[in-house]
Specification:
- With 117 residues, the chain is mainly alpha-helical.
- 38% of the residues lie in helices and 0% in strands.
- The two termini are 16 Å apart.
- The protein has one domain (5-116).
- The chain has helices at residues 19-26, 32-46, 76-84, 104-116.
- The longest helix is centred in the middle third of the chain and has 15 residues, at 32-46.
- The chain is built from 4 helices and no strands.
């Protein structure tokens, strides 16, 4: 199923497939395994000793909202897209050669959305 731009992150990731996004936006229960893995990653990559479920407040990286998800401030793809003023990496002339976009499915999602316009 082809997604709309609003259903994708800047990078083309399908937000509706993310447990955190679904928990925040649709009220679904956050799986404990997801929280455990985020806690491990937060400690390993960002030196965070304590990550609470409430900190995983993702509403999607392209949306502006108060209390933005902390991981967005660390994302080089989001930072780049915002600096370039593009609503999606799919609109960037360097998307096909971008080293930041290392997930093939994300690039494919971008290409599908942009090709429909």
């Amino acid at each position: 199923m082809v997604k709309t731009l609003e259903e994708l992150g800047y990078c083309g990731a399908d937000c509706s497939a993310c447990y955190i996004y679904r928990s925040v936006n649709f009220g679904e229960a956050l799986p404990q395994e997801t929280l455990r893995r985020w806690r491990e990653d937060a400690k390993k990559f960002w030196g965070m000793d304590n990550l609470e479920a409430e900190q995983l407040n993702c509403r999607g990286c392209r949306h502006s909202h108060e209390g933005v998800f902390f991981a967005f401030t660390l994302c080089p793809v989001r930072t780049c897209a915002r600096e370039r003023g593009v609503n999606s990496c799919g609109y960037c002339p360097e998307m096909k050669t971008c080293k930041r976009l290392d997930v093939p499915e994300s690039k494919a999602n971008q290409e599908q959305v942009i090709s429909r316009e």
